[in-house]
């Protein structure tokens, strides 16, 4: 049997090349879109966990968290489940931790922690143009998204459109194909999910900076 280096989870996880590519993209343009950047074994951990979930456990997504949470079906109508950092997902959260360290080391982003949820968009669902973080009002610094869908076609809709700061200029449209990785600076890129015409499965996550000071303690999630 021939050894394939890219199939080796250990090498793939610790291979610096993908982190180099991501850092370079974020440094040069503030966003990056990569196919199969997440090591196959790490992605499989996530996908298997997602596939075990029952659709009934997903609940209406809202705007904001905790006390600020409001359902708003005019803005978005996907359904979500937040992930717990438990042993079953250790490979995933380990990889995220390595990514965080590599980005901090190369770009001094000061990323501190990470939160993520699965989303299901049913046919007709969308998420209107929004930013994930308002300057100075959120500790979300870097957005990541990946997908679980196979064989996505342009006519399936559901593209993630990333806009320039004017909210009009389309920078890129990402089709939600399995193990496509999207990362962008949360404050800098308005984006939207176009109406999907088939079930659309994704994971969205945010790397946060620690805004706690002596006067202000960030509330626990
Ligand atoms: O699913 C996507 O492509 C992006 C989702 C998104 O923008 C969000 O959850 O904030
Ligand atoms: Fe978003």
UniProtKB/TrEMBL annotation:
GO molecular function, one term: peptidyl-proline dioxygenase activity
Source taxon at top rank: Bacteria
GO biological process: cellular response to hypoxia
Keywords linked to the UniProt accession: Dioxygenase, Iron, Metal-binding, Oxidoreductase, Vitamin C
InterPro entries on file: HIF_prolyl_hydroxylases, Oxoglu/Fe-dep_dioxygenase_dom, Pro_4_hyd_alph, Pro_4_hyd_alph_FE2OG_OXY
Family matches, as Pfam families: 2OG-FeII_Oxy_3 (PF13640)
Every Fe2OG dioxygenase domain range: 107-209
Keyword Iron: yes
Cofactor: L-ascorbate
Xref: Gene3D superfamilies: q2cbj1_9rhob like domain
Protein's name according to its UniProt entry: 2OG-Fe(II) oxygenase family oxidoreductase
